[in-house]
Design a protein that fits this description.
The chain has about 850 residues and is mainly alpha-helical. It has 32 helices and ten strands. The protein has a four-stranded antiparallel beta sheet.
């Protein structure tokens, strides 16, 4: 049967070469049509959630949650950092208002804790004791605040402080906060840094939302027709911030993160990495081809065939799948590394066949056709077997729940058959047209190729056993990294911001969520979850209805009677001399205050005195014009934040009773689902940058709420699902390839000769993940099943060649060995180019595949021949 297949292949190639021009023309036309179809019909799916099958239970739970709360899907988180709480709050309010004015780009803009509702009712969210304390402080400073509102100038401000520091001060005040704020203001003025005194800290430090970090949750309108769907809205946010002068020069930093920003930045790094990887792989393959084939014509024909097969694979992807995901986009680089192997074996065997013709050549054209027929007849069957086994390695992921790699497996697996067809049709036709006459010289190769005798054979067996045992020791330390964040470019702003929030923010993005049909059930569940370890708190919409409202409204009502402050007229400005004298007088009063004061204000007063002394020394050295500018700027530094805080205080005096019904709609839709479900949100305790902390957090909450969902659950569950998919795929690939080899080789011994070196290379790769600290992840998990398929290719070629001829001369001197080396080098060049990707997941895939291919090459060329009978020493 083998002879019949070889004759059939030879006849087929004879047909292709006799009509070479028509075959090449048809191939070019089909390639161009396929390229056009791929460009116009192949889209990109950036949703990481779609990498896992929607039929998995934990995915179904999350899909149901998204249907109930669509407002949380496709969100962009804008992080607003200010040098003071006042600056952060004002910047967030400005940016929120500006973004709401762009409805064509943003479907929804929400500022947690911001807006008129919280400005008006913020005091109700304080405890009764804190509200009483705040009321007492505001009552004490009311005369000062009233006077400053009537005359908001630097002399008035410093005069008020002089009076507060006097021995007979009318009100006993804690001056430590104002001293600290002023010290920072004088230091910033001297250093030329932007700074404003925080009136929010001074007047209402206990109010909700007093933080130098604020958030804006934006739901942008995504353009899925563009490569980066959120690029336009994200750029609009940057442009708006720039137009509003929300930048470092004004004490503000605007950053973007969240699901949408992470997806767009990941897609950008993946596509850029894939483009660069494909380009580098193509160049590297071209160089290696020329060095191995020593023929421009053979190299050109091989590369054109490679392009035709790549376009054909992309066309199949467009027809069968319709889209690429963040994993399957790597098919191009994988194809370049693998698809060229078939052309290499054909070309090298063609050169060897030319040498075997000797003087039996009627014409160059007939000699080329005869050599091509001999080459294809000899390697065609093994190429077909290789296509089947490599595709088997890819297809092994199709039955698994890992949809991302399943699609890559389908596309790349079919791509192997496309490459086989191109290598048996287009390639020989192209070679027949070019007629390269480059016979190889096996004698030259044999001179440098070492012969492995029986003693060397035994040494290889012992060394292989030692290496295998050493690798087995490392197996228990293999780990899987379930973090999708670890796959991305660590230098991307969205990634850095997300990690910063995980490590430092009080508002971690990794919260857990669940739903209950009734509010009472949600409240009961939240109370139980809040008692669990690793949990900092659990909330429902009921937490936005404050307790003890009667007592709080009474306190606010009494405060409103005494705190009658009108908006300050900021057009009033004191003259240069008055400002300068006010600061000089203040310095004297501060010195006197420090001499007689030993209270808790002493440390703050000392810091202020030091900062003020340094500032006055620096100020005196400036030119008169510079001094005027400095004092004008000092007016803004000290008083610019006052109007906003006075307005907020005026709003807070109008607080009214809050019920579930009169909560703002944009708040309620985030806590009450479309079907009336009530949302429970659980916040973690600790830094969730570490997997162990994430796992402890999830396990703790699951003891009370087994069907909880949210980013931490998705991450851990996806890791478990992918790990299972990897094990199943490896088993599927191993069983299929073993049975296939047994049927086709019809020899248990030869099947073991193919699989034994491959098993050793698999152990080496697994140990390498431990030694080089490259854990398996969502991207590189394809390495072992893929290498099982690819490695079998080399084994089949080696075993096929060694079965044909007695093992009595150096195997490394044969065209088969050279083809295995050359094809392995081109495959490593293709895989290795992925290692330079900015996307960490793609880079790790390239690293593992390169290490694996190197292991496969060494074991195939050394261990496999050592398993055959040595006929001479």
């Amino acid at each position: 049967m083998t002879r019949a297949l070889e004759r059939a292949l030879a006849a087929w190639v004879e047909l292709m070469t006799r009509h070479a021009a028509w075959v090449v023309l048809a191939g070019v036309v089909i390639t161009l049509a396929g390229a056009w179809y791929s460009v116009t019909h192949l889209s990109m799916d950036t949703d990481n959630g779609n990498l896992i099958s929607s039929k998995v239970p934990w995915r179904q739970t999350h899909i149901a949650y998204n249907k109930a709360f669509p407002v949380y899907k496709d969100n962009l988180v804008v992080v607003v950092d200010g040098s003071t709480p006042d600056i952060a709050g004002a910047a967030a309010d400005q940016l929120t208002k500006a973004l709401r004015g762009q409805p064509s780009l943003f479907a929804d803009v929400y500022e947690p804790g911001g807006g008129h509702f919280f400005a008006k009712n913020g005091f109700l969210y304080l405890s009764v004791d804190k509200l009483k304390s705040l009321s007492t402080r505001l009552t004490r400073i009311q005369p000062f605040l009233g006077r400053l509102s009537a005359d908001p100038t630097l002399p008035t401000f410093f005069d008020m402080l002089d009076r507060a520091m006097a021995p007979d001060a009318p009100v006993d005040m804690n001056l430590s906060p104002v001293f600290s704020e002023l010290a920072a203001t004088f230091d910033a003025s001297r250093a030329g840094h932007y700074n404003r005194l925080s009136w929010q800290q001074l007047i209402g430090g206990d109010q909700p939302g007093v933080s130098s970090q604020r958030f804006i949750i934006v739901r942008p309108k995504l353009n899925y027709g563009a490569l980066l769907p959120a690029q336009k809205p994200m750029q609009a946010i940057r442009d708006t911030a720039k137009r509003l002068h929300l930048d470092a020069a004004h004490g503000v930093r605007i950053r973007e993160t969240g699901e949408v920003a992470l997806s767009d930045e990941e897609l950008a790094s993946v596509t850029q990495g894939a483009a660069w990887g494909a380009t580098l792989a193509f160049i590297a393959v071209g160089v290696i081809l020329y060095l191995g084939l020593r023929s421009w014509a053979l190299m050109g024909a091989s590369l054109i065939s490679l392009i035709a097969g790549l376009v054909g694979t992309a066309t199949f992807a467009a027809l069968a799948v319709g889209r690429l995901n963040l994993i399957s986009i790597a098919f191009a680089v994988l194809y370049i590394g693998l698809g060229i192997d078939y052309a290499i074996h054909v070309c090298l065997r063609y050169r060897e066949a030319l040498a075997e013709l000797g003087g039996r050549v009627v014409s160059r054209a007939s000699g080329v056709r005869h050599a091509l027929a001999a080459a294809i007849a000899d390697v065609g069957l093994s190429l077909t077997l290789c296509a089947i086994t490599t595709a088997g390695g890819f297809f092994a992921f199709i039955p698994t729940a890992y949809s991302g790699v399943a699609e890559l497996g389908l596309i790349s697996g079919v791509g192997m058959f496309i490459s086989l067809v191109v290598s048996l049709t287009f390639l020989p036709a192209a070679i027949a047209l070019l007629k390269p006459w480059v016979p190889s010289s096996s004698a030259t190769a044999s001179r440098w190729a070492p012969f492995i005798g029986r003693r060397g054979q035994r040494t290889i067996w012992v060394a292989s056993a030692v290496v295998a045992l050493g690798c087995v020791v490392a197996l228990p330390f293999i780990r899987f990294d379930p973090s999708t964040l670890d796959l991305q470019n660590p230098n991307d702003e969205a990634v850095q911001t997300y990690r910063d929030l995980l490590a430092h923010s009080k508002h971690s993005p990794l919260t857990l969520v669940t739903m209950r049909p009734k509010l009472a059930q949600a409240k009961q569940l939240a109370a139980r979850i809040a008692k669990q370890p690793h949990v900092s708190g659990a909330m429902t919409v009921a937490d936005f209805v404050p307790a003890h409202q009667d007592a709080k409204l009474s306190i606010i009502g009494d405060l409103a009677l005494t705190l009658a402050v009108s908006p300050p007229d900021m057009t009033k400005r004191a003259g240069f001399s008055a400002r300068k004298q006010a600061i000089a007088d203040f310095a004297q009063h501060l010195a006197a205050y420090r001499k007689r004061d030993s209270s808790s204000d002493a440390d703050a007063a000392q810091r202020l005195a030091k900062a003020l002394s340094a500032w006055r020394g620096w100020f005196s050295q400036q030119s008169p014009a510079a001094q005027k500018r400095i004092l004008a700027t000092m007016h803004d530094r000290v008083l610019a934040g006052l109007p906003r805080q006075v307005d907020r205080l005026a709003d807070a005096m109008n607080a009214s009773r809050i019920t579930l019904q009169n909560l703002p709609e944009n708040l309620k839709k985030r806590w009450i689902g479309t079907g009336g479900q009530y949302r429970v949100e659980v916040s973690p305790k600790g830094n969730l940058n570490h997997e162990s902390t994430v796992r402890a957090f999830v396990n703790s909450v699951r003891q009370v709420a087994p069907h909880i969902t949210g980013a931490p659950v998705l991450e851990l569950s996806a890791g478990h699902t992918v790990s299972q998919a990897f094990v199943h795929a490896f088993i599927y690939a191993g069983v299929f390839i073993t049975l296939f080899l047994l049927v086709l080789l019809r020899s248990v011994r030869d099947t073991l000769r193919v699989l034994a070196p491959l098993a050793l290379s698999g152990l080496i790769l697994a140990a390498a993940t431990v030694v080089f600290d490259i854990p398996f992840n969502f991207a590189n998990v394809i390495a072992l099943p893929l290498l099982l398929g690819v490695g079998v290719d080399s084994g089949i070629h080696v075993v096929h060649r060694l079965r044909q001829r007695e093992h009595h001369r150096p195997f490394l001197g044969t065209s088969t060995a050279r083809a295995v080396i050359l094809s392995s080098l081109t495959t490593m060049a293709g895989f290795g180019s992925l290692a330079f990707s900015h996307h960490a997941g793609t880079a790790s895939m390239g690293q593992l595949l390169t290490i694996g291919m190197l292991a496969v090459l060494v074991t195939t060329l050394i261990v496999a021949p050592a398993l055959f009978r040595i006929l001479r020493d």
